[in-house]
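To illustrate this point, what follows is a protein record of this kind.

___
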Amino acid sequence: MFRLAAWLLAATSIPLFAQLECKCDVSHPEVLKARECSLCAEIEKQPAGVPVIFLKDINPRKANRWLALPRAHSTGRHNLEDLAAEQRNALWSGAVEKAKSLWGDRWAIAMNGHRVRTQCHMHVHIGRLLEGVETANFVVVDSTAKIPLPGDFGLWIHPVLDGPEKGKLHVHLGEQVTETVLLR
């Protein structure tokens, strides 16, 4: 019931099937003033050579959240698939370490699907996993390097705390709105 209520809240606050028109181009700073390009603009303020950037979420309704972003830009809508395997693993492993430092073993990482993203630059949300949100729609991986590509969907990840899979990760797939599993 909680999961349904959370999804309904998210569905009404994020335009479903929003199609971003990503024209972000770091060589044209005036374009980066568009709301959907604001994360690209933030990335450009960060030091070069750092593969993953961490930013506190500025949304006042998400006071407990952080974002992890790859330093690399790609054309159009930046997608996870645009990153090389090493870049994806750096993003995931960096996000996991940041999440652990903030939330101990109650962390989760969520990446919304393509249809509900409101920013062009690919990013993941880091936060505390809410109680009771576990579903049966997951795969088990033993390292961040094995996190699958979700295609057009989002994903959310959290540690397995007990049982025979303890120490591994649950990667939940097949959803668009995923950040609702995180404490606001």
Summary: The longest strand covers residues 169-175.
